[in-house]
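[Q] Does anyone have a clean structure-token version of this?
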Amino acid sequence: MVDGSPKLSDGRYVGLLVHLDGQVVGGVGILWQDLPPNMNTTKSIRGYLLNMYVDPVHRSQGIARILPAAALDACRTKGVDVVTLHASDAGRAIYAAAGFTSTSEMRLQLD
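[A] Here you go.
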């Protein structure tokens, strides 16, 4: 547990880790979002995937495919039916292979 992180301590953020030979070699986070129902879901909780990382030494071994699949399983278990993320150019193909589609998002950076 990291001090000062209420999302970790209250369960709003969970991390899934891949271990090989006693070492963490990859992980992905899920942020449980409380949002009102909308045209895509009648549920008030959604999953947001973030912080996916695989150690460079362990890349090209399928870990990057295992992590989103495990996160989606966790979302299904929690009863979530809408999952979102922001993909880097490097990760876009991995998420597309897991079934994610691109959406249109607008952003404004406030000072």
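[Q] Thanks! Anything notable?
[A] The mean pLDDT is 91.
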